[in-house]
Each structure stands twice: as C-alpha cells, then as structure tokens.
Amino acid sequence: MNELIETLIRGLGLGGLYSLIAVGFVIIFRSTGVLNFAQPVFMILGTYLSFTFVDSLGLPFWLAALSSVAAVAAIATACERIAMRPMVGRPAFSATLVTVGMFAAGLVVTTKLIDPDIITSGDPWGLRNFCLGGERGEATSGVQPCIGGITVNYTDIFKIVAAAVVVALLGLWLHRSRYGLAMRATAMDQEAAMAQGISAGRVFSLSWAIAGGLAAAGGVLLGASAGGVASSAALVALKALPAVIIGGLDSIKGAVVGSLIVGVAEALTKTYQPDVAPWLGANFDVVLPYVLMFAVLLVQPYGLYGTREVRRV
Amino acid sequence: MKADLNLSGKDPASGPADVTPSRRVNVAASVRRGRPTVYTSYARDQAIWNTPAKLWWTVGLVVLAFAAPFLIAQDLTNLLALAAVYAIGGIGLNLLTGYAGQVSLGQAFFMAAGAYTAAVFGGESTRTVIGLGWDMALWLPLAAIVPGLLGLIVAPLAARVRGLYLATLTLGLVMIGQHVLNNWDALTGGAGIGRAPAEPVLFGVDLSKPVRVAGLLVTEQRALYLVSLVLLIVLAIAARNLARGKVGRAFAAVRDRDIAAEVMGVPLQRTKTAAFVISSAYAGVSGALLSVVIGRISPDRWNLLLSIDFLAIVLIGGVATISGSIMGACFVVLLPRALEDLTHAFPALTNDSGEIVGFTLDEVKTMLFGILIAAVIIVEPRGMYGLWLRIRNYFKAWPFSY
Prior knowledge:
- Chain A contains eleven helices and four strands.
- Chain A is mostly helical.
- In chain A, the strands form two sheets. Chain A has a two-stranded antiparallel ribbon. In chain A, strands 2-3 form a two-stranded antiparallel sheet.
- In chain A, helix 1 packs parallel to helix 5.
- Chain A starts with a helix and ends in a 14-residue tail after the last helix.
- The model of chain A has no long low-confidence stretch (mean pLDDT about 85).
- The longest helix of chain B has 27 residues.
- The N terminus of chain B is likely disordered.
- Chains A and B meet through helix 4, helix 9 and helix 11 of A and helix 7, helix 11, helix 13 and helix 15 of B.
C-alpha cells in the first residue's frame, strides 16, 4: 500500500513535468498549427541555465529558475522570429519540419554545453525526503530509511505544486486577460482575429515565448531530481508528445489530463512491471507512453478532448 | 497522336488526308531539329524520359556511376555504396511523405525491420543470435516483404489519423521499435553488442571475396556498390513509374486535398495503405543493404536521428522528386566527408584534436543537417531539385535569362 502511494506521488510529479511541456505544445499548435519539435531543446536549456545561474552566479534557486524561464522564453521568441515567421501561410507540415531541423541542430549545442556533466537545476532539496506515518531507521550509506511509512521526496512535492500553480495561472491568464482572448481568437480563426485588429504576428511570438518558458520550467522540474540529469534527458520532453496526443492536440485540459495519465502510468509501470510482467523487457516504462498513445488513437483518432476536424471540400 | 503539332492549321481528326503516319514523324522531327528539349505529343509528355536530353543525361550518369568504383579510392566507393543505399530509403520515404503527403518519422523503424529480417535469413547462427544463412537472392526480397507486412499492420491505424497526429504516431513506432530491439537479444545480439549482418552471397557467389571479371578486380566494396547501384536504378525507375501512373496520381490527390480526392473516387484508405506498404518495403531493402555495407549492426543505430537523416534527404533533395531523393542522399552521405576534406585543406578551421570551434565533425554534420532542413524549407521548398531547375532554366533561356 505504501509503495503504491509513493509510486502515485512520483507519477503525479512526473505528470506535472510533462504537463508543462505538453501545454507548451498545445499553445503553439493552437495559435500556429505547428507541432514544435524543438521543445526538448528548450527544456534541457532551461535545466542547464538554471544550473549555471545557481552554480556560477550564486543566485538563489527561485531567482535562477525564473531567470532561466525568462531567458529561454526570449530564445524561443528569437527562434520564432528567425525561422517560423517566414513560414506563415505555408503548410503547417513544412513549418513543423523546420522545428525538426531546429531540434536536430539545437540538441547538438545543448549536448555540447552539458556533456559530460550530470546537472541538477540547482534546487535546494536534492535527495532529502520526509517520512509520513513511519519511523526513521538507522542510516545506511547516508540515507535514513523510512520504516512503516511513506517516503516523500521534497522534489516530487515541488514538481506537483509548481506545475499546478503554473498551469492554473496560465489557464486563468488565457481566460481572463486581453492577450489570452487575442490568443484564443487567433487560434479560432486567424483572419477574423486580424480583422478585429489583433496582430497575428505578436500572438505567434507570444505563444512561442510562453511555450519556451513552459518548457524551461519543465526543465527546472526535470533537473530537480535526486541524482541530476545528463544531456540525453532532453528526450524526456518527447514523452509529452504522446501525452498531448492522448489528450487531443488542441486542448489544454486534454494536455494536462494526458500528462497526468502518462506520468502515473509510467511510474506504476516502473514500480510493478519488473515483477508482474518481466517479459516486456527492461525499461518498459520508457516506451509505455507511446503504447498508451497507440491504444488511445485506436479508439479516438483525435484524442480524449481533441476537436474533431471539420473537413470541407 | 492527337497532340502532334498541327502545323497545317486543320483539325487532324477531321482532315485525315494530309496526316499520314510518315508525315507525322517528319513534322515531329523537323520541329525538334536543334531544339532537343521540345516534345510534341502527350505520350512524350508522360514518358519517363520526356526529352532526348534527359535520356542522354541519364544514360551518361548511369555509365559514370558504373565506372566510378574503378576510378576512385576504395573508401570513396564505400561512401558511394552508402549513398546508393540511402537513396533507396530516401525514395521510399519520398513516396510516402513527398508524393502521398503522409509525414513519417518512422523510417528508422522499417529500416531496422529490413536489416534484421536480412540478418536472420541471411546471417550466420551463433551462440547468441539466430541466423539461417540463406542466399542474398532470398533474403533481399524477404527484407522488402517483412517490413511491407509491418507497414500493412500499421497502416489501418496510420490511415485513421492525419497530419501531425501521424508524425507523432510514427515517432512512437521508432521508440517502441528501439525498445523491442534492445530487449530481443536472440534477434539483435542485445543493446551495445550487436550482431553481424547478412552474408552477401548472391546466387552462390560470395561477394566478400575479390574476383577478377574481364580484367577488372571486383573487391567486396565494389561488388556491394554495384549491387546497390543496380537495385537503386531498378527501384528508382519503378518508383518513377509508380509516381506517374494511376497510383501516383492517387497519392498526389490524397496529399493535396484528401477529402476532395475521396469525392473524386480515390479510395482513401487503400491509397494510404499502399503508400505505407510500398514505402516500408523500400525502407526494408535500404536497411538490409545498409547493414551489409556498414558491416555490423547494433540496436541503437535505428533511432530518431536516422529518421531525421532521411527526412533531410527528402527535404534537401526535393519533395516529390525521385532524382531529388538521389541528390539528397548523395549530399547527406558525402557532406561529412566533404567537411573532413575541407578541414584538411584549411587546417586553420580546426584545433589540435580535429574539432571545428569545439564541435566534432559528427556534431557539425548533425547541426548542419538541422540548419539545412530549416533553411531549405524556408528558402527553397523544392530543395536541390529546385536549385537544379533554376540553373537549367537559366541556361535554357540564355541569353534572355531574367
């Protein structure tokens, strides 16, 4: 029972991380119709910048996290201006392939920046945890086991809280502010929005900035893990893709729900699959999101909450 | 015949008297004199080589390609073989993504299927991996059939989803494929270890042993290159034929507006399935040959970056062109080598450990591909084929090239 609850908490933390990146995917998709494959690069850049700000500049963690989010948002906006703006009016599929190119090129740069180090995002918690309803036992190799209780990592709590706060604030902002309204209007009908005096270009920039910032925030969460992450962890962000597809490409609610499903399912698989179904092979939890995606697409071609495309001749 | 240039001004159908067969030939010949690129009938318009100029270019290039291994260094021959193999895979992806408009990141998955099918049927059995040791004449077709069947299994799901959903779905295929390969030790030899590929024994002739044919020494590299080249030519012509026939037009209709295609009577499901199966079969052949050319295969080779390489071939070469795919493959395979030669020619570019501003050649290559994919789509969506068209049209219209 305790193991199950621990797993669920870990899964929710993971789901929170995915949901930040997934919401970034959805925001860009809704405003420009493009799937931004460069999100993994933005994410790992967020981890790296946060780490650097804490490590070399000595900033406090919260300030470093915020600065890295702001910096990556600026980089994402620059990418949009340079590479995506010329693609306005061209097929979304071509524009998506541009982001694939950005992904391939950017990944080399971030790998170069990070390798061969293992970095954290400079969070103050590290391996520390608290013990719920149990007693601390003898310390073995520096770690005090939690006997008869539930071990909860501070980083998992941080992930859940941070993701919930960010997504809630963003949702509120999208629904209440003028810019949120402009973004929703552009997503609904670009030409009609422009006729109402909304600058579509500014909405594109804004959506890339938000998505980049979200990815960086996801990167900060990713780095806030016990052992730190290597440069290859950038590919974790790709797991937000099946989450988005499960939820439906154009639904923010779907992205959050899909991410939580994927996060919890992944954590459960990691805990129980080696005992229950060892024939599925080692590290099956890594591909589970994709298997889930296949299953959902078989039943619902537009995901759980995605809008069915209206097709006109 | 109705499209012969009608110089007399009469409708040829209503005035049969002066349009005898011999006369028609003469008109065509006189019109074409000194203008090798002019064509004078619908049949010619639809032909593979619709102008004599194109035919001569093709023949010349093919002859050059066959002579090449005997004229250049051995390591370059190996690279050319790789280029031919990549071209086959590139044509396959171009049929699916370029002609039929179904964005696929799953090329690496189907190539892996081809490579391991070949390895199982054509490879040697060892203590760790299975292998049947059959002839290349058997394992090569099988390396097309098995991935084709896999494509057939995936197609019903892939045909249900559209656009970017499909791109993500095929990305999932690559990820799941990697997992299966990493864990299926009897097939792949296990992660990080790998296995030997199929044996290149064609009709009982061991291609890995050098033989002398008509005074020419055919080494393993040369033999593999020649086999790949022959397959490339056959498969390229097959693809070109497919693209200009009924199937290819159905592909294009589905790509341009799938619902309009459906209204016009193009069976959507069947067309998409056909595109998937054919593309997977091409990928399988390419994967099988690739494994033989590079010599040893490990499961981590068939990853997302390989798929991106093939997208780069299609996009840099030219979407929905066969010759573009071949140009793109040559470019993608030869670029690292060209970079290397460049660093030899200009030692100032590199530091002591052979790196360009801190990046290794491999990293520079990946970065260049990424930037080039983006740049080509933004600046010249028709890719290298488009560049070639511009150059050709410049000289065609010379001296009135504006």
